Amino acid sequence: MVDSIKTAIRLMCKAHKHGRLGMADDLEMTIDQFHNHLYQKCGSRFFTLEELERMEDLSGTTYLAEYQANRKGKFLVDIPAPGSVDKVDLFDIEMQATIAAGELATAKMAAAADGVIDQRERKTLSDLFSKKIRHQIHGFMGFMALYGVGISDQAIDLFVTTGRKSDASECAAPGVVACRYQVEN
User: What is the pLDDT of residues 132-156, one digit of tens each?
Assistant: First the structure.
């Protein structure tokens, strides 16, 4: 889970084929300039949104998007394009969903063993629940893609919320009815 913007940057640099030095070079910065932006030293500003998006593109990751989703209590789901999934891919996706469900069940049993769910166990259970739901949605979207149905063709509006009052208004586009069911973490 990407819980801070600096974690996202660190992970993007790690995923870059030449590491932090390569990332700085690709952004046309020296490593010192890069560090000054990252740590806001020597009166330097933090990275711009354009620079952060470029880092994400250069690294080939979605860490910035994951950070933004976590920041708003949401999560990301890979949505396969129609025709990009075959039955073997779909089987793999469904296996991941089954594994995630098993991990959640095991963690629930362990957390309930002492009769009290503490903060650490709650966080673990919430993370595993999100993982399970993400895999299930990915599996459904993969199933739809297998049979040539694109996301825009589907009459499915879903959002996952942490219970913030602003979530429904943020998720519902004009003219779209947001799902009235909430999945709380």
Answer: 998 898 888 888 888 887 665 444 4
| pLDDT tens-digit map of 59-105 | 999 999 989 988 888 878 777 777 788 899 889 989 999 999 999 99
pTM of the model: 0.60
Angle between helices 5-15 and 49-59 (to 10 degrees): 40
21 in Cβ contact with 31 (< 8 Å): yes
All residues at 6 or more sequence positions from 99 whose CB lies less than 8 Å from its CB, including other chains = 135
